[in-house]
Amino acid sequence: MKYLVRKEEMKRYDANTIEFFGIPSMVLIERAALAAVEELVRDSPAACSRILVAVGTGNNGADGLVMARLLHLLGHEVLVLTADNQSRATKENRQEFAIAKKYGVAHETFEAFLTGAQEKEGAAGAHRFDVVVDAVFGVGLSREIGGSYRQLLERLNGLSGKKIAVDIPSGIDADDGSVLGVAFRADLTVTFSYEKLGMRLFPGQEYCGRIICRSVGIDDHSFLAEGKGEKPFTAAFTQEDLALLPPRRPRTNKGSYGSVLVIAGSAGMAGAAYFSAKAAYFSGCGLVRILTPEENRVIIQSILPEAVLTTYSGVCPDEDVLAEAMERADAVVCGPGLGKSEGARMLVHMALKRTAVPMVLDADALNILSEEPQLLKSPHGKLIVTPHLGEMARLLKSTVADIRDHLTRTAEEFARDCGLICVLKDARSVTAVPHGMTYVNLSGNNGMATGGSGDVLTGVMAGLIAQGLKPELAAPLGVYIHGLAGDRAAERVGRYSLTAQALLDGLPAVFEKADI
């Protein structure tokens, strides 16, 4: 598991390292710059003779000044660009600038550089660099960039040469990944101690290029040493976290691995029930029951004979049929392919009323509840909701654009306000556990933007819960596994041709790798 920190967290960890351990900030700056130089040289060993380093007035700029000095001492031709108003520079920045000048590092101001570039526009003498280093703004930036800084970043983006960002590309909000007016477009970002949350959310991820995280002395021991802090509360699963999956023991039977009830499918929508149920089986669940209209019986029995069927005629089953189907379920899926008929509405109401085990609500169940969102706040068993941006917009009476721009905040507030686990699905899906961790998913690909993909996800989550994994863990781990399956499917069929069936077929390979 990797932790993704936000602005205030990183500021606190920096301060604690300096104040508690007594490591001077100049030492941390030197270590950060050395790490960045090592990665720069490793990334571009044969093509970095002329290097431009743009530095701001903060300690991110101080990192850049040290880099310039180190690269100069390695024999590279280095030009440092500094802010026009150096009176606003931090103490560390001023010290590093003075040191760089004494070593003979060439420098000029932003204004001089921009004026010179405009004068030479299109001429043979125009600025040409092998590497462009961005150390203008650090993770603390929260205001929109304008004026000469905006002109500078636009000019840097237009230069030829490899683009390297120090800690985070200037102009990217470290909390939500938004572009603050303009942002540096890096080919490589060298960040320190922890990846920042905004680097892994879109559009920030697109501006970072390849991300390398280097330790500079800030770690768990530093901010936990006095028992004052807690670990960062945003994380992303990695391959090693598949060890969290429920174990398969020698002396077991199907009852040992739990039962899932899938309430899904309307007439003509048997596929949604199939994808959820099959995904639950592929996730290790012992038994899956499908509650669906009688019209779907023959189809489901033909394509998924392993499932136990409970069918009903008419608009919806009576409560006794639902209660019997739920009787032995360890987890419930409700919503895929249900439609929004009055019968579907009654079925969702009954499921919320009767379910005492964890339940995953998806698709049409969420569309129905968007008209009665107060039902999500009623007393119930553990709920997991899995809205995509459009469904969340309906639930909150908001806009897709506003939710897309504030993914983590939206998921966290909704989870906390409703007392449920919220999986907000996007290119970077966010899982928020109320008063607990928030997870950003880094697996998956754009081929998974296909019909039925969400149905597979609900089945994976429910299958993990049925085997005893707590919903707080099954939800984000299920999202991660779902993404891994999508990556395996893309390797096999390509992203253009990826379907929900290919996604399903990718699941066994993921679980096989974990079954060691």
Task: Walk me through this protein's architecture.
This protein has 516 residues and is of the alpha/beta class. The chain has two domains: 2-234, Rossmann fold (3-Layer(aba) Sandwich), CATH 3.40.50.10260; 256-514, 3-Layer(aba) Sandwich (UDP-N-acetylmuramoyl-L-alanine:D-glutamate ligase), CATH 3.40.1190. 42% of the residues lie in helices and 16% in strands. It has 19 helices and 19 strands. The chain has helices spanning 7-20, 25-43, 59-73, 91-102, 110-119, 147-158, 204-208, 220-224, 270-282, 297-303, 319-326, 342-354, 364-369, 389-396, 400-405, 407-418, 453-466, 471-493, 500-514; strands spanning 2-5, 50-55, 77-82, 106-109, 131-135, 162-166, 188-192, 195-196, 210-214, 234-236, 259-263, 287-293, 308-312, 331-334, 359-361, 383-385, 421-424, 430-432, 438-440. A hairpin with a 5-residue loop joins strand 18 (430-432) and strand 19 (438-440). It starts with a strand and ends with a helix. Residues 121-125 and 222-229 have low confidence and may be disordered.
Throw out a few tags for this protein.
516 residues; alpha/beta; Rossmann fold; UDP-N-acetylmuramoyl-L-alanine:D-glutamate ligase; 7-stranded parallel beta sheet; 19 strands; 42% helix; elongated
User: Structural class, from helix and strand content?
Assistant: alpha/beta
CATH topology of the largest domain: UDP-N-acetylmuramoyl-L-alanine:D-glutamate ligase
Which stretches are poorly predicted, pLDDT < 50 over at least 5 residues?
A: 121-125, 222-229
Name of the CATH first level of the largest domain: Alpha Beta
Query: Per DSSP, what share of the residues sits in E-state strands of 2 or more residues?
Result: 15-25%
- End-to-end CA span: 19 Å
Record the strand order, biggest sheet. 8-1-10-19-18-17-16-15-14-11-12-13
Number of strands: 19
Radius of gyration: 27 Å
CATH architecture of the largest domain: 3-Layer(aba) Sandwich
Mean pLDDT: 93
